[in-house]
Amino acid sequence: MVGSRKQQITQKGPTWIIVLVCLACLFLIALFINPLLSHTAVCKFFPTQACRIHNHDDMHSNPFPRELTDNEIESRVVVKEMLKFNSVRTKTSKVAFLFMTPGSLPFEKLWHKFFQGHEGKFSIYVHASKEKPVHVSRYFVGREIHSEPVGWGKFSMVEAEKRLLAHALLDPDNQHFALLSESCIPVRHFEFVYNYLLFTNVSFIECYIDPGPHGNGRYIHHMLPEVEEKDFRKGSQWFTMKRQHAIIVMADSLYFTKFKYHCRVCTMLLTFTCLMFFPLLIAWTNCWFLSMFKHVQPGMEGGRNCYSDEHYLPTFLNMVDPGGIANWSVTYVDWSEGKWHPRSFSAQDITSNLMKYFTKTVLFTPCMWNGSKRPCYLFARKFYPETIDKLIHLFSNSSSS
């Protein structure tokens, strides 16, 4: 009897331990999945500055405007003075085309046809982040600038954009600046693009509020006090910008630094390693760690995977000159597939109807150009290199509009 009872206890012991461990794991998984629960629980036991900010936000907001920091005052003075001076258009005014590419441009022949016959009205700058490009067009020869490695989604993309702008601003005749990728193509002829950009009174920078996890869910409170959540914006990185705004962007260090250090992509390899080998530890400490470095928003990513190239310029320019940006990009991108990356067009997709679609498509709201409704798009992306021959044929046979 004694031996039988001992055997029963021995059999029940491991079972209850397994059940308790499973329940604990489920609880920890719930904490990991639900940022609101985890943040509340963590703040109860591990109060941090981020917790205090979170609790302060839950209270009614201060009806009085906050006092600006010295850096903010200095920044606003510089921006205000720069906005007073409008660029003077002359007969030698040019549009600067800024190409950000890993190496050779697969559509250089198409761009050659686009630029041909319009010498003196454009400048070209190429930021090749991986290898020196091989050129097939005389317009691109010798147009590479000093480049640095660029990682997708990393802040190095913003740094590359500023590097391109800096080189282009050295030429006083460059009055408008268009950022393009290696997969971009023109969907209008040069004269249309030139007049559209050079004689506009705005910069074409997409800018909108995205309340979801891939928009304001990326906001982190360590951007305070200079960048409040109500000011956080999202938009495509493919912009065109007038000289006035390009100079303002070059002069900015305050907001540039905020985004550089606080709007970043987490290291996926480290996260994967931790989840593989320390799942319980990660689940237990995840939100406490994030509360120290990244404020966790209920039901959102809380600053994890913040892509500065989608947020820095829309947020900054919307804060300093909201009336000076168009709130849309003149580069067409198809996000209809609902993936992390936009749709890429293959050779079989290239038809005259598709090209007409790019030029006729409008956004949900009319695209206003100097107070008048105009076509929305001048460029389009993303295209596979195999489409080059069809694109050149269609571009050569299209109208001059």
From TrEMBL:
Q: How does it sit in the membrane?
A: Single-pass type II membrane protein
What GO CC terms are in its UniProt record? membrane
Pfam families, from UniProt?
A: Branch (PF02485)
Q: Indicate whether Glycosyltransferase appears among the record's keywords.
A: yes
Domain of life assignment: Eukaryota
Please name the InterPro entries in this protein's record: BC10-like, Glyco_trans_14
List the keywords (alphabetical): Glycoprotein, Glycosyltransferase, Membrane, Transferase, Transmembrane, Transmembrane helix
Tell where it localizes: Membrane
Molecular function in Gene Ontology: glycosyltransferase activity
Q: Give the residue spans that cross the bilayer.
A: 15-37, 268-290
Q: Principal place where this protein is found?
A: membrane
Would you tell me the protein name for this molecule?
Putative glycosyl transferase, family 14
Q: Which organism is it from?
A: Lupinus albus
